[in-house]
Amino acid sequence: MIPWLDPSTPFPPIGTALGQPDGLLAAGADLSPSRLVDAYRHGIFPWYSEGQPILWWSPNPRMVLYVDEFRISHSLAKRVRRRDFDVRVDTAFDRIIEACAEVPRGQGGGTWITGAMIDAYRRLHRLGYAHSVEAWRGDELAGGLYGLAVGRMFFGESMFARQTDASKVALAALVALLRQRDVPLVDCQQETRHLASLGARPIPRERFARHLDELIHCTAAPEGWQTGPISDIG
Fold first, then answer.
1. Before 229, cis peptide (omega within 30)?
2. E-strand spans in 16-61?
3. Are 181 and 222 in contact (CB under 8 A)?
């Protein structure tokens, strides 16, 4: 059994999360900005489908990308050098999250990015927490990603590509931006072969929790995020 959270109920310790399904911690509460920022600060994220209650997760192990371990292939490095895509930050957040929601996930083909989730992350974007990195070709949005910046960590949420390598170029741009901001770690949440090919790897939840303690000393939205084109990404 997992606890049911009222809007005022704090999260339980992440060590109490279930082993099966891996990381299921609690249900209920809401998607208010304060609840979401508190969740990420403690290594917890929402993940549920339409028609379900809000479900909160903290899996073990946790997939992360150490910025210094980002792996860029020769072909991707060529794309970056040729500037096959124009990369921009926070110029089309709504379009990015909507495009991510359209990507079929899993065998059922549904999405976990529900309408309520879209509204919640739009609020976080307006407050300066949620950011998009976009790969453009001319006027066409070719791919991108979005996530949250809290303290000296970035919490990746989702990515999509309509053209080959567009999301990977966006990730390379994010890594370059995080290096400039002295942000050493990207939370990738769950393990995938795609993320592993780019240098991400699983670590024990206890180690991830220590990173949170080290890197998040303030829950105010980080200031100074660049908006607009990125020219130096590799």
1. no
2. 24-28, 45-46, 55-57
3. yes
148: closest CA among 186, 199, 119, 181? 186
Q: What is the pLDDT of residue 111?
A: 67
Q: What is the mean pLDDT of the chain?
A: 93
Span 4-59 CATH architecture:
2-Layer Sandwich (3.30)
Q: What is the mean pLDDT of residues 185-194?
A: 92
Q: In sequence order, what DSSP letters do the residues of 143-188 get, joined into one string?
A: EEEEEEEETTEEEEEEEEESSTTHHHHHHHHHHHHHHHTT--EEEE
Q: Is the pLDDT of residue 105 over 70?
A: no
67 compared with 83, residue with greater pLDDT: 67
- What CATH number is given for 63-230 in this structure? 3.40.630.70
- Which residues partner with 24 through β-bridges? 57
Contact 117, 105 (CB under 8 A): no
Q: Under a CB-based contact definition with an 8 Å cutoff, are residues 59 and 47 in contact?
A: no
C-alpha 54/C-alpha 29 separation (Å) is 7
pLDDT of res. 198: 94
- From first CA to last CA, the distance across the chain in angstroms is 47
> CB-hemisphere CA count at 13 Å for 177?
26
Sheet holding 153-161, edge to edge: 201-203, 62-66, 185-189, 153-161, 140-150, 130-137, 86-89, 228-230
Read off the pLDDT of each residue in 119-135 and give the average, rounded to a whole number: 97
If you ran DSSP here, which 8-state letter would residue 221 be given?
P
Q: What does the domain layout of the chain look like in residue ranges?
A: 4-59, 63-230
